[in-house]
Amino acid sequence: MGQLKQILHYIQRSQHKPTLENQVFNIASFTGGILLCVMALSNAFILTDKLAVIIPLIVSLALMVLFYFSRFQQKFIIAALLAIPLVYALSGVMWLINGGQSGSIIHGLQIFFLFFFAILPKKYHIPFTVFHLLSVISLYLIEYFHPNLITPYSSREEQLTDQIVTLTLSIICVYAIMMSIKRIYEEKTKEIQNQKEDLKELNDLKDKMLSIISHDIRGPLGQLKSVLSLVADGHISKEQSQDLLKKVFINVQETENLLDSLVAWASIQLQERNIAIKEDLIELKPVIENEKNLFLNQIEQKKLVFSCQVPQQLYVSVNTNVLAFIIRNLFSNAVKFSNPGGEIQVSCIEKDKYIVLSVKDTGVGITPERLNEILDLNNNNSSTRGTNNEKGSGLGLRLCKEFIEKTGGTLHVESETGKGSTFFVSIPKNHH
Which of 245, 273, 316, 380 is packed most tightly, with the most Cβ within 10 A? Predict the structure, then answer.
């Protein structure tokens, strides 16, 4: 059954993105061509008229040609319109040589009508219906006025056999078409469900971003506006304005970090599923030094001891921007939650196919409950303020976890309240 479905799937598909009607025509024309060959063989044993063998073979070949044009040349409408006179001409001939209205062709004509009516565009419905009625009425009139043109069955056994064969072949053809339609319907349903899930994810992403923007960006901008207003109006002294501007600078820097996180988060959320982030083979220590330089002012203000025990010429396989983003956020977190005079240690070890980078601080630590919250992308709680009342969004660590997992690594945290935290990032050493 599974192999049959695969065969039907190949037959119905086109080189372009086919419509439902296109796919149904593909499977019907192919299946019809095969069944007409079978009918020709059966007629060779049942009927004595050579036309009952030759004509189905000719029409079978013609249907295969139309299948080719629809399936591989993207000419579905032309193929369908050409198939109509072909099929009805065959039906007319078979009507004459297969017993007329006492034969099985009348049942086939009803199936043909339903089939073509279903796949043709709406503008062809009325012309085709008129064509069908004229064709059927013409056959009845020909038989009524010229009964000598009808070749009767030679026996009741011959009539019964023809009826059974035609009914069986019709059922097989209808079954193949219905299986095709069912498969297409299931695919469309799955596609719609995936689109629904994608829309829900995008809507959730939008809600989270709006919530963060309204909560974490409006505040610093309001403070900046107030300070600039005071300075511009001359209501504060030069010394006071310098002190306030330093605080504003910190707020602006924190807001910039937040925007970087939001942009990075939105970018990865909008990527197609299961698309891996491009990897680079890069040296680890220069990236650490570059990211450390971004925090020199904060390290100096808190009088922190920063040590790096990462050797030179140590390479990892990871996207450059991803690695920089992860290290930046780990350093930001360590500086933010370190007490004045504390220490930050950066080191690494080789473990199997990974380089395990650790960033350890002697800060306030994180409770297990809070750690679960900040690593959960579905959690929209804001972050905890730092030891100097530094503000953040709580997005950084969540993104670090998601980014490193997309590159085949892991993020692990060990923390004890009041004693500090250590973040372990496992980064692949070589390209996958």
Answer: 316
